[in-house]
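Sequence in, structure out.
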Amino acid sequence: MLTPTQIKRQLKECSKDELIQLLYEVVKANKDAQAYISVKLQGEPALLEILNASKEQIYKEFYPTRGFPKLRVAKVKQVLSDLKTIGKGTILPFELLVYFCEVAVEYIHEQGDIFEDMGDRFTDAYEEVVQILNNEKTPDLFEQYKDRVQAIVNTPGCDCWGIHDSLNGSYFDLKWIDHDKDQDDIANASGVISYAAMSKWLKIPEDIRQKYISNVWCGRCLGATTIKDFTAQLDNHGIILQGICSNCGHQVARVIEK
């Protein structure tokens, strides 16, 4: 087999048409090469397309269209690794890593358990997220992702395999957080805004969601009202919508039980 240097030397002797044909045959035979060339030619649009496709691959490991979840650690590792190579120098590999953590924690919250090897991969990925943030010289990246990173560790029902303890330990290694404030916030919160909560909320049919939104009790109005400017949270009872009454502005909440 030729070395990269030998290949480069041989390519210099090829005509333009020969190079085009050779490149075409390579990208046709190899999807990784196709993705690499697409990024080189199209830039960010191609990268975003690859990111979305990568997210879909990860999501289907947990939530397949048909059949049972496969939860293949090797598959997840490969998807993460491929984007890390193709998207080197961009934020996209980090975005995919955070997304994987969000999908994994949603699955654990819903199912109450996960294969041990996938649980280990999840906690390793979360630790990697924390280390990447800690290696930043400014808090800019942390500020961009802090709500999502905190929501992952605060999602309830993730005690299997010691996952919650592991996530909590990683989170409080973050150099950018105010540890005392965050401890108080966690202790005082009845629920947490989370990707998992919003994902479960959006899975409810639109007409049913509208019925929930327009049928919330207001203690000041002493009647049913419409909630607005609400957030979705999770606790052991189910989804909690917290917002304000559309009539009087009083704080209201609606529990959507499991």
